[in-house]
Amino acid sequence: MAVCRRHGSRGPALTFLIMGAIGYMVNTVFGAMFTNGTETSTVGLLYPVESETREAKKLDGMWNFVRSDSSNPSQGLREKWFSDDLAKFRPTIGMPVPSSYNDVTEDASIRDHVGTVWYDRRFFVPKSWQLQRVFVRFGSVHYDSVVWINGQQVLKHEFGHLPFEADISHVLEYGKENRITVLCDNVLLQVTVPQGKVVNSPVDGGVELVQTYTFDFFNYAGIHRSVELYTVPQVFIRDVVVNTDLVGDEGHIYYTVESSLNSSIAADLQATVKILDKAGTVVGVDTATGAELKGVVIVKNVKPWWPYLMHEEYGYMYSMEVTLEGKSNEASEPVGEIFDVYRMKVGVRTLEWNNTSFLINGQPIYFRGFGRHEDSDIRGKGLDYALLTKDFNLLKWVGANAYRTSHYPYSEESMQFADEHGIMIIDECPSVDTENYSQILLEKHKASIEQLIHRDRNHPSVVM
């Protein structure tokens, strides 16, 4: 239970808070002004990687941080705190990103804060990026968020635990410093995923604003995962979808490549897909042309992806190299202009089940593992590679081969670790102990699970 206390004389402030008890005003303030769960589509969102055609720059580190008054959650918007450095409006403190903000300081009012907080920092954009398209990508902000670049709103997103991004090429100043501002709201209501309630409780000399919920873990908040800038060419690979099958000793890797062009123009493109083993040897290749860039790469003597302790070479991952290029009009020029190159890891495995067994690669598997949490001391739900490494070492030490992401989507980096370590994942959306049902909540549940499936569909470790 998060508690935010406000003490003082019984005057206008108390009247405001008691009136807000009907819904803390967040039913209208937060729900209408910030997000509604449908702003971010499931288009693109490939995990950022560098290549011959792409650059990436993390904005992790120390950011400036301001806590809004819980009794006045929209003050920052009214006063346009996003229009300049936060320090121009209020004193700021340093806050690490990625991390929950709750346990970093010794200030109980920050730990138990109910409402909005603000982050900002400056970053440099090189002139060389001016000919590229530049995206900003957040791994996770809990719960609601709004993002501005140089005072211009570029992005809104609801749901913690899931990534979101926006093309910010048009608002950047190249060869100069730029400013990014993030509003983060941790309030949970009956129409959020997960649910919660905000009530006002009278106390001596004032009231306390209380966030309640029925789930059994703390409502950590903040910028929980990495913030990253990445560049792509003007014509780029927007998405890649992979499905796999085993046919004898062959691995069949079915792929679909989506470009940034519309279907009529995309007909002039082709995608070349190569599969490389761990030694870097090309073991399969295929080329797709036309408006729909899809096909299959066949790998002879394939090494399937196996769970830990089910095979001596568990967690085997191939590298998949996707090259987007223009189709050549000349037989003597088999390759046209190369637009974009993207690389990702793929594992080849099959899933099926019957009345008695769950089968991976045709073999029955018994799940041995845990329900985990991402929580840790000081960092809260902030991404930490040292802790992630320790957790996976402990899983293997105890002989586990699986865990469920109780009770929300874990980081993309956690999914990558699971792929490499051969740990099976039961992937969960952030819905716990639902109390009341509504059409709004249903639509948000649909949006949340759609974003989760879109993010994790290519991971061989995700089996449910």
UniProtKB/TrEMBL annotation:
<keyword id="KW-0378">Hydrolase</keyword>
<dbReference type="Pfam" id="PF02837">
    <property type="entry name" value="Glyco_hydro_2_N"/>
</dbReference>
<dbReference type="GO" id="GO:0005975">
    <property type="term" value="P:carbohydrate metabolic process"/>
</dbReference>
<dbReference type="InterPro" id="IPR017853">
    <property type="entry name" value="GH"/>
</dbReference>
<dbReference type="InterPro" id="IPR008979">
    <property type="entry name" value="Galactose-bd-like_sf"/>
</dbReference>
<dbReference type="InterPro" id="IPR006101">
    <property type="entry name" value="Glyco_hydro_2"/>
</dbReference>
<dbReference type="GO" id="GO:0019391">
    <property type="term" value="P:glucuronoside catabolic process"/>
</dbReference>
<dbReference type="GO" id="GO:0005615">
    <property type="term" value="C:extracellular space"/>
</dbReference>
<dbReference type="InterPro" id="IPR036156">
    <property type="entry name" value="Beta-gal/glucu_dom_sf"/>
</dbReference>
<comment type="function">
    <text>Plays an important role in the degradation of dermatan and keratan sulfates.</text>
</comment>
<dbReference type="InterPro" id="IPR006104">
    <property type="entry name" value="Glyco_hydro_2_N"/>
</dbReference>
<dbReference type="InterPro" id="IPR013783">
    <property type="entry name" value="Ig-like_fold"/>
</dbReference>
<comment type="similarity">
    <text>Belongs to the glycosyl hydrolase 2 family.</text>
</comment>
<protein>
    <recommendedName>
        <fullName>Beta-glucuronidase</fullName>
        <ecNumber>3.2.1.31</ecNumber>
    </recommendedName>
</protein>
<dbReference type="GO" id="GO:0030246">
    <property type="term" value="F:carbohydrate binding"/>
</dbReference>
<keyword id="KW-0472">Membrane</keyword>
<feature type="domain" description="Glycoside hydrolase family 2 immunoglobulin-like beta-sandwich">
    <location>
        <begin position="235"/>
        <end position="331"/>
    </location>
</feature>
<comment type="subunit">
    <text>Homotetramer.</text>
</comment>
<dbReference type="Pfam" id="PF00703">
    <property type="entry name" value="Glyco_hydro_2"/>
</dbReference>
<keyword id="KW-0326">Glycosidase</keyword>
<feature type="transmembrane region" description="Helical">
    <location>
        <begin position="12"/>
        <end position="34"/>
    </location>
</feature>
<feature type="domain" description="Glycoside hydrolase family 2 catalytic">
    <location>
        <begin position="354"/>
        <end position="464"/>
    </location>
</feature>
<dbReference type="InterPro" id="IPR006103">
    <property type="entry name" value="Glyco_hydro_2_cat"/>
</dbReference>
<dbReference type="GO" id="GO:0004566">
    <property type="term" value="F:beta-glucuronidase activity"/>
</dbReference>
<keyword id="KW-0732">Signal</keyword>
<dbReference type="Pfam" id="PF02836">
    <property type="entry name" value="Glyco_hydro_2_C"/>
</dbReference>
<keyword id="KW-0812">Transmembrane</keyword>
<dbReference type="InterPro" id="IPR006102">
    <property type="entry name" value="Ig-like_GH2"/>
</dbReference>
<keyword id="KW-1133">Transmembrane helix</keyword>
<dbReference type="InterPro" id="IPR023230">
    <property type="entry name" value="Glyco_hydro_2_CS"/>
</dbReference>
<feature type="domain" description="Glycosyl hydrolases family 2 sugar binding">
    <location>
        <begin position="57"/>
        <end position="233"/>
    </location>
</feature>
<keyword id="KW-0458">Lysosome</keyword>
